[in-house]
Design a protein that fits this description.
This protein has helices at 3-13, 18-25, 37-52, 56-67, 70-73, 76-92, 104-120, 124-140, 149-164, 171-191, 194-210, 214-230, 235-252, 255-270, 274-288. It is mainly alpha-helical. It folds into two domains: 3-213, Alpha Horseshoe (Serine Threonine Protein Phosphatase 5, Tetratricopeptide repeat), CATH 1.25.40; 214-289, no CATH class. The model has no long low-confidence stretch (mean pLDDT 94).
């Protein structure tokens, strides 16, 4: 087994076996052979020990040991990844990060990562506050700054989805949900492929629909579907694109457009294999209700 295989197994098992995976991660440094693997290990250390286990001490110890490796000390990107991971753990606990001073781009990444940790720990208020700080700092950076877009896109997407799943939301939470979805779309367009971008369009359309911003939802649903068509998207992506188009048309009172999009979604659903159908079942059932 090499590092990539080890990491894939750890990610696949960590939800159900967080403690066991955490113990395995304590020996993961031995698998490292390339500097770019350091950031991947730092990320899962924060996720498992911080988000799942709340074992902040073990997380910091493992990151300190990782930081001391020659493989890390000789590579600027690897060293940066560990600094960001350490800072994100401190921020998630409401502490001021200690140690080496972070560049502004690193601070954005640390705030976004801390937001994701808090969200995973169901600390929605803290997650939202940290996300706001990351977004404000990103807006202050000079044009051409780079390196934080993916972290911010992930945090924004996760926050928008979490707020969208709430049974009841305040007006402030609706506004935050849409703002997070807009940020996810903005930063995935910079950091991701067409696939991440069209999925961000979907989340943005659904967020607007949930916030009763129906015209905006319909516009973003069109963007989502257009990206799918432009890139010959598979049936799984087409199902969701047609589903949000159907829901937007229904909210606008466009009966014919709703039915056409609904039928297109159901047709895409039939083209899916069993696991993908299971992942789409809730949305399909809602279309048939």
């Amino acid at each position: 087994m090499n590092f990539d295989q080890f990491l894939e197994q750890a990610w696949s098992e960590h939800d159900d076996k967080a403690y066991a995976v955490g113990e395995q991660l304590k020996s993961a440094r031995a698998w490292l052979t390339q500097p770019q693997q350091v950031s991947a290990l730092a990320r899962i250390l924060v996720h498992v020990f911080g988000e799942h286990l709340g074992d902040w001490g073990s997380a910091q110890r493992e990151l300190t040991l990782l930081q001391q490796l020659p493989l890390c000390q000789s590579d600027a990107q690897a060293a940066s990844a560990v600094r960001v991971a350490q800072a994100s753990l401190a921020l998630a606990q409401g502490q001021v990060p200690q140690g080496a001073k972070l560049a502004d781009e690193e601070r954005v990444c640390a705030l976004a990562a801390a937001s994701a940790v808090c969200l995973g720990r169901e600390e929605l208020g803290n997650a939202s506050d940290l996300f706001d700080l990351s977004l404000k700092l990103a807006a202050l950076l000079p044009a051409g700054s780079a390196g934080f877009e993916r972290a911010l896109a992930v945090a924004a997407n996760n926050l928008a989805c979490a707020l969208g799943e709430l049974a009841l939301r305040s007006e402030e939470q609706d506004a935050q949900m849409v703002k997070a979805a807009q940020a996810a779309r903005q930063y995935w367009a910079q950091a991701g492929t067409w696939l991440e971008t069209q999925r961000a369009d979907y989340v943005l359309a659904k967020s607007c629909l949930r916030a009763a911003q129906v015209q905006q939802a319909a516009s973003h649903a069109v963007d989502c579907l257009n990206l799918c068509r432009a890139h010959d998207a598979p049936a799984f992506e087409l199902f969701f694109a047609h589903e949000i188009a159907a829901l937007s048309a229904q909210a606008l009172g466009y009966g014919a457009a709703f039915e056409a999009a609904r039928q297109a979604a159901l047709q895409a659903f039939e083209a899916l294999d069993a696991p993908d159908q299971a992942a789409c079942q809730r949305e399909r059932d809602a279309l048939l209700a």
